[in-house]
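Posting this for the archive.
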Amino acid sequence: MILRKYSFKLYKFVEGMGFDLGAINIQRGRDHGIASYNEVRKALNLAPITNMNQPPPEISGSNWDYISKAYPGNPDDIDLYSAGLAETPLPGNHCKI
């Protein structure tokens, strides 16, 4: 999760305005050809998402609601960065981006 206090405050050039760090990271991943969330799931031998009504077990229902609103069409369009942040951490893992 990116804290709201950090959104739109990167490189403030105009009073009260800045860049959205999350959007920059998503675009950076696309620019560099980072695989989609579904491609990475397949590479890790996890079941791919076949439709947007099928939330993966790694993402909570409330987080999946956000993902499915941001990516309403093809599950193959889901960016790794967005879905990776939406996943529930494993027990004992306190690492969050």
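Helices lie at 21-31, 37-43, 61-70, 80-86. The CA atoms of residues 89 and 95 lie 8 Å apart.
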